[in-house]
Q: What sequence folds into this?
């Protein structure tokens, strides 16, 4: 059997923790090999070892059967290993070609750069793999999906034979995901080999040949994808049975809690991003907003929560006008907010996780009295929440920064739900989290709904929207363009609506009543 | 994750080790410079020591020198904790000095009223001088560094003009403040052979305690630090970010203003036309840096700087120029600022020791 890459019994330690413990991955030529594991399982560490960013303590790496020592990323590049990073590393005002040749520019006469030659070569590569990239377009003018293809081209241009994709679908629409899958298939058809880092089981089932599972730094084993199923993969990854289909009773919507009327919100450039939006959310239901990133979702949430002024329109919470109130007053009116960017908004990372648990309530009794903080009460509360929401932390005094993403998120969710708000806004509540944490968070959201709270869920993950929502509002270009019931729609239809096409009967229903 | 946790538990150790190593390296390099320039470092440092601790008088003078440094150090540390860089402590010292002496001269009242009034006037003046850059930053986004630098010059020249034209008739120094507004103490002077030691040191130490309490124990400190660490999360949590920026600059200015009060009501009892800055505010930046923006650290760093500066006066007796002390101080700051290098070396050392 011919392997292009073999990582045998890799062990990587950091002070106090074994990140990779005896992991073996063997990549066959021409296969798509999934690397599956929870957050913090050690996938990235392992790939950083392969890419030369870390040196393993034990084990060996072979490329085409030969033992190699990869001491830095340049060595990896020379061995034909390329990485498509999750966060693109592109220069926005540069063209596609300029970005691709950056660092290995073809030299013309007198030190000039031969752009024409490079463009021709890039166009050839692009055509061969069906990437359909315009080499002379500027990065800032092309879509996220296209930008990702530029990253792929970058590795191919440098002669990569093995491509590592680091969670490539996190930023894509369903259509773009399908196209990416096609690109991956045509890459392997041309003899390339692919490692796909992911925790999305659907993608693995759809496109991968084999799958290596890592759990808590240990290699669990490699399975052939067509001999397995998502349930087995999930339990291999988490180490227990996982319930995918979120159990929930039918919703019993009651009175309107959030009422938005003809709302306009501008971004920093003074351009309208929310354009006359109408939306109602009732007590006891979860309304999911589906949409591609950048269609005004962030601005909508910021306007509701008081972080951004709205230009015109009306936002009512429990029949009280909260339009353009300060965040504190909105919070006091009964709003909980799980922010999209948990590092930027959700936590003060340098504070202990315990101090973060009272971020909105520190000034109230019993956490303080005449402006003097009562740490005993603060940490008592923190300890309760940490236990109830299963936040894994060495102690409540540990800086929030030291917790993993999933545990940070559980802490935020605990804090927001504990205030028992009438309206809970959950923006991307499970972004970047593994199935175990996702399951837990979905359960908590539904529990709140059953207690009669109104929940507004914003997510770019269609699975999440379909699974958790009682009602789906599709947002496109600053407006709600469709109202759907999860049981009566499918991802295909949603995907089209999110991309701006209208469907008979759904396209013009601007009002959700 | 385990890696991160271990690093934070090491942070406390590093936090103490880095300044100590920096100080030792600074002294060592100072010794080398003395050697190279043909002086005896042992004699030089002995003279430095004697200059600061020779007898009760020098000790009294050393404490006097430490006093305003504690306060300017606190001023800058406090602003730092909120993510603001107050370069304007210098100007705040000058206006605080001026206001305190003004009240000290102009008013007649029993000490129990006069002294607190003069102190408050100085603190307030410093606070106002901090308020202006604070409000400009909060409302218009003007960078506080630019504004505070400019405010220093405004303070310097306005103060000089007031001394010349308002408080005196074209003289360079005002009359002495009334004894009812003085921080001086005959008792302290008598036990230190008539040094200029005054009660201000108690105010400075009390201010350090106040800063510790405000920063660590109150909702005000909770907000200020949160705003310093993460402005977005603070806004999300419903804190008034603008208010906190202004408040931080005002409190910082109050501390610096008090440093001016120390000089005005304690050391000199007058205010004079000055041709250049007092440097108390700028030294405060170094004190805050060395003290890791921590009140106790600031007190310790101020003691070190005060001792070095006071002791330097005696160094020419060993043939060493006083400027050498400035070089040593500069080197200490250099090593603190480049603490990354020391951290890195320590980490390397630990790894290899395993």
A:
């Amino acid at each position: 059997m011919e392997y292009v890459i073999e990582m045998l019994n890799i062990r990587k330690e950091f002070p106090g923790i074994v990140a990779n413990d005896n992991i073996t991955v063997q990549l066959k030529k021409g296969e798509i090999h999934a690397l599956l594991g929870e957050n913090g399982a050690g996938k990235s560490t392992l790939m950083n070892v392969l890419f030369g960013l870390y040196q393993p303590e034990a084990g060996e790496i072979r490329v085409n059967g030969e033992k190699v020592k990869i001491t830095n990323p340049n060595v990896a590049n020379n061995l034909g290993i390329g990485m498509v990073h999750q966060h693109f590393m592109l220069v926005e005002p540069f063209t596609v070609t300029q970005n691709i040749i950056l660092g290995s520019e073809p030299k013309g006469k007198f030190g000039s750069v031969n752009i024409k030659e490079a463009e021709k070569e890039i166009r050839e590569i692009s055509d061969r793999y069906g990437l359909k990239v315009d080499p002379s377009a500027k990065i800032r003018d092309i879509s996220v999906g296209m930008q990702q293809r530029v990253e792929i081209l970058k590795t191919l241009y440098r002669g990569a034979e093995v491509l590592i994709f680091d969670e490539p679908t996190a930023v894509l629409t369903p259509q773009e995901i399908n196209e990416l899958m096609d690109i991956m298939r045509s890459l392997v058809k041309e003899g390339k080999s692919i490692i796909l880092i992911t925790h999305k089981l659907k993608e693995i089932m759809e496109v991968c040949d084999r799958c290596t599972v890592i759990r808590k730094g240990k290699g669990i084993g490699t399975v052939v994808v067509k001999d397995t199923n998502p349930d087995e993969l999930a339990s291999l990854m988490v180490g227990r049975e996982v319930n995918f289909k979120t159990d929930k009773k039918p919703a019993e919507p009651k009175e309107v809690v959030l009422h938005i009327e003809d709302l306009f919100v501008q971004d920093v450039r003074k351009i309208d991003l929310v354009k006359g939006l109408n939306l109602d959310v009732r007590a006891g239901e979860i309304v999911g907003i589906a949409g591609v990133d950048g269609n005004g979702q962030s601005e909508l949430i910021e306007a509701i929560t008081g972080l951004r002024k709205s230009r015109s329109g009306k936002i009512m919470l429990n029949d009280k006008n909260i339009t353009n109130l300060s965040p504190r007053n909105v919070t006091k009116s009964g709003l909980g907010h799980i922010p999209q960017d948990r590092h930027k908004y959700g936590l003060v990372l340098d504070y202990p996780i315990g101090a973060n648990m009272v971020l909105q309530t520190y000034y109230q009794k019993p956490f303080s009295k005449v402006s003097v903080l009562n740490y005993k009460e603060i940490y008592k509360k923190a300890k309760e929440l940490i236990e109830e929401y299963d936040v894994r932390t060495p102690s409540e005094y540990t800086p929030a920064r030291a917790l993993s993403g999933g545990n940070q998120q559980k802490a935020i969710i605990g804090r927001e739900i504990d205030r028992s708000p009438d309206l809970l806004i959950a923006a991307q509540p499970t972004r970047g989290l593994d199935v175990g944490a996702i399951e837990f968070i979905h359960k908590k959201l539904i529990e709140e709904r059953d207690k009669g709270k109104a929940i507004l869920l914003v997510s770019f993950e269609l699975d999440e929207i379909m699974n958790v929502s009682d009602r789906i509002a599709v947002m496109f270009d600053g407006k709600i363009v469709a109202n759907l019931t999860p049981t009566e729609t499918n991802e295909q239809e949603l995907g089209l609506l999110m991309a701006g096409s209208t469907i008979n009967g759904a396209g013009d229903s601007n009002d959700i009543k | 994750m385990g890696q991160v946790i271990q690093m934070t538990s090491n942070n406390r150790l590093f936090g103490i080790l880095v300044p100590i190593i920096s100080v030792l390296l600074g002294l060592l390099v100072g010794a080398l410079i003395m050697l190279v320039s043909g002086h005896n470092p042992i004699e030089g440092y002995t003279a430095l020591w004697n200059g600061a601790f020779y007898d009760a008088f020098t000790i009294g003078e050393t404490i006097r020198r430490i006093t305003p440094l504690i306060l300017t150090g606190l001023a800058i540390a406090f602003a730092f904790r909120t993510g603001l860089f107050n370069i304007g402590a210098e100007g705040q010292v000058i206006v605080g000095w001026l206001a305190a002496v003004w009240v000290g001269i102009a008013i007649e009242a029993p000490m129990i009223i006069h002294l607190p009034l003069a102190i408050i006037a100085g603190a307030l003046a410093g606070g106002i001088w901090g308020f202006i850059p604070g409000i400009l930053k909060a409302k218009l986004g003007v960078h506080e560094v630019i504004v505070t630098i400019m405010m220093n010059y405004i303070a310097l020249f306005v103060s000089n003009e007031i001394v010349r034209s308002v408080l005196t008739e074209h003289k360079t120094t005002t009359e002495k403040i009334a004894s009812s507004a003085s921080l001086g103490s005959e008792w302290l002077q008598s036990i230190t052979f008539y040094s200029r030691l005054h009660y201000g040191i108690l105010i400075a130490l009390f201010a350090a305690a106040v800063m510790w309490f405000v920063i660590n124990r109150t909702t005000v400190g909770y907000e200020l630090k949160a705003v310093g660490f993460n402005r977005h999360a603070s806004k999300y949590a419903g804190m008034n970010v603008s208010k906190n920026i202004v408040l931080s600059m005002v409190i910082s200015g109050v501390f610096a203003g008090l440093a001016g009060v120390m000089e005005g009501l304690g050391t000199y009892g007058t205010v004079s036309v000055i041709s250049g800055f007092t440097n108390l505010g700028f030294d405060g930046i170094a004190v805050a840096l060395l003290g890791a923006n921590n009140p106790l650290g600031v007190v310790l760093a101020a003691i070190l700087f005060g001792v070095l500066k006071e002791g330097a006066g005696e160094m020419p007796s060993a043939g060493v120029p006083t400027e050498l002390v400035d070089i040593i101080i500069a080197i200490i700051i250099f090593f603190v600022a480049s603490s990354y290098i020391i951290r890195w070396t320590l980490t390397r050392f630990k790894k290899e020791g395993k």
